Known about the structure:
Two copies of one chain form a homodimer.
Chain A: H1 4-11, H2 15-23, H3 30-43, H4 49-56, E1 61-66, H5 72-87, E2 91-96, H6 101-112, E3 118-121, E4 140-143, E5 154-157, H7 159-172, E6 178-182, H8 188-204, E7 213-215, H9 220-231, E8 239-242, H10 245-257, E9 267-269, E10 286-288, H11 291-306, E11 315-318, E12 321-323
Parallel strand pairs in A: 1-2, 1-3, 3-4, 4-5, 5-11, 6-7, 6-8, 8-9
Antiparallel strand pairs in A: 10-12
Chain B binds a DNA duplex through residues 3-5, 13-17, 19-20, 23, 27-29, 32, 47-57, 114.
Keywords (chains A, B): DNA-binding, Repressor, Transcription, Transcription regulation
Protein name (chains A, B): DNA-binding transcriptional regulator CytR
GO molecular function (chains A, B): DNA binding
Amino acid sequence: MSNIREVARLAEVSVATVSRALQQPELVSVKTRNKVLAAVKQAGYQPNLLAVKFRSGKSHNLVVLVPTVANVFFARVISGMQEAAQQRRYSLLLGNTMADDNAEIAYARLVQTSQADGLIQLRAFDPFATLDMTTERLPMVNACEVLDKAPCPVVTLDNRAAAMAMTEHLLSLGHRNIAMIKGPARSPLTRDRVAGYRDALDAAGVAFDETLLCPGNFTLQSGHQATAQLLQRKQRPTAIFCENDEMAIGALQCLKQHGLKVPEDISVAGFDDISFAAFSDPPLTTIAQPAEEFGRTAVNLLIDVLEQKLTLLPKVILPFELVLRGSTGPVKMSEPATDTPAVHLT
Amino acid sequence: MSNIREVARLAEVSVATVSRALQQPELVSVKTRNKVLAAVKQAGYQPNLLAVKFRSGKSHNLVVLVPTVANVFFARVISGMQEAAQQRRYSLLLGNTMADDNAEIAYARLVQTSQADGLIQLRAFDPFATLDMTTERLPMVNACEVLDKAPCPVVTLDNRAAAMAMTEHLLSLGHRNIAMIKGPARSPLTRDRVAGYRDALDAAGVAFDETLLCPGNFTLQSGHQATAQLLQRKQRPTAIFCENDEMAIGALQCLKQHGLKVPEDISVAGFDDISFAAFSDPPLTTIAQPAEEFGRTAVNLLIDVLEQKLTLLPKVILPFELVLRGSTGPVKMSEPATDTPAVHLT
DNA sequence: AAATAAAATGATATCGGTTACATTTTAGTT
DNA sequence: AACTAAAATGTAACCGATATCATTTTATTT
């Protein structure tokens, strides 16, 4: 590959002039500039940006830690990141970490070693916290699932309010026996959504029943499995609120296999509004999150930090939307029959 | 950030010794090595890998051009790439190109400018072809949808045979009126799968009907739309073979909305075997592709090329598998009734 | 103890750009 | 024509590591 010296030789000027002709053309006479451009063309010269980055100390790369790229919601987030990064001329280094702390720490080292300028974390874990830092904190933005006391800008959604809104919706349909298929127990996301669920129950004067909370891991399979468990209860719930759409779709299948009709026999709600949610049978009632916007905002915030356009620590809260589709409906009047005398219904 | 000179100063040795103590410890005396390691620790030294990369001329980055990261199949491919790249200590630079030639060419420049060592292309387009190359070809691997005459290693699947296998399956169930929802017309993938479909029809002596081919774009929506069109035909098909699972799931929804039962009234088949395929209603008969393996293989091939472990141009063909689920079934005997006299059925 | 080989360490060029500073050329003024 | 300011260009240091080659130190042999 030809370098700047080669071009300088061809154009019969100094390397500094070549550099200037390309970077600040106004500093170079038209005649020289043309000579240089001709030489660039002749040599097929492409500046070695690795050298530029090294010299400038800026890699113009951002590391993104994604728990699972194969998750549809995160795929949308990444899509938004891509868009914003490209616009601002940064590249994304993708880290598929399977939510493994050590894998994330390994990726965080890319920032420490100047291979990336900053990091976007989509999980409530601070990979820099454990790196023995003699210097100040490295640039980071935390999005989607955020740390309670994040030492960095944050992009999130009011998960508690969203879960409350969904639960209120189910309550308004007459449901009183509402199960929830959660995510991993330690996750703040799970905690907040359970809290919102509880808020709604409390406000409606419905007793909270811990045993209605079923653990899942955000996959179709886990939604199916958890639902199967719920159906073994002597009094089965009249509605299942899943913490994401994948689990809700898993739940739908399980219910179908048990011969239950949704929403006639049981209502199902999801969270995220992935594309498949509108195409399930029945289409899924869910909470829509602006996934791409999460990505765009996170990238823009991080670059703002890097370019010093930001001093304080912003906390961006994106809006959610309750999307009503066919998977939720009024509770069946005969429902409590299993363990309630029919006389109550009169 | 502290650098190697700082460490050398602290350890009271030369920078060369520091470098050696870290890279080839066996060349340095134990005493000196310990002094250096202590200094490294004291200074919180992390080698600037941007400098290392610059010096070595190798970025250890790979560009991946993905038509749509939000596509479930590609998400799995990326997942596999990640895994392989991490193992071999490379990073992935992700380019979400929306199948736009110019966007891909822009990303290809990352390789030209030494920011990445090679490129993986998941589409039948050669972004290097248009770059005026004075030098030899830049390292590239083409996977999933491949160029007919790819000037590089290739990872693919026998799409023609796979489509033929699925069509044969449908034929064996008695279907003679089989529609196909295709991908974009220009794609070799589409061409090969249509060819395989036709192979099977020909072998069975069933006439090929061009009007049964319906264009789609691999999204849920397009599957839905195309199906709606097919249902307007005076003689509606008894089976629909979709070129990917998303479109098949879109088709399922459309059929449901029209009050048609799958597979009793009409059979539906997909391609890819994404996770949702097993959870649709009914579960989707499809062609399983080893998506993660595509990613892993592509990355390993590219790195082999980069590390000169490869001279010839390999063409890896991964296996597919026909996965039979509930969305395909025998053709209804009364089906041809719409435009065939009942007398034929006796 | 001297000679020699082997091991350890140091000085420095190098990668390919950018940029501060020095120098030369051109344009403008009297 | 002489002088000055401005514009254009050149020289060389620099970014942080690696690696070659030279030099010094240590170990081994006689």
